[in-house]
Amino acid sequence: MLIAGRIRTIRRRRKISQRKLSELSGVSLGSLKRFEQSGEISFLSLIKIATVLDLGSELEHLFEDVPPLSIEEIIRGQD
Length: 79
Hints:
- The protein is about 65% helix and about 0% strand.
- It is mainly alpha-helical and about 80 residues long.
């Protein structure tokens, strides 16, 4: 729910209603409300919302520092 809270805060700071964000992003109002309440949303819808809020570059950093799961993964990465 951490991401949902941040998105809600950014939306409110920019004075964009849920309805307007829904219209601009193409994400249904129900999905947007559910996301802000529960944090549940499809990745595609999250991308659409982030794009409208000009947060696309933030999404690029999501998987930047993913640590390896095993030593085998590290060894394979050296090939």
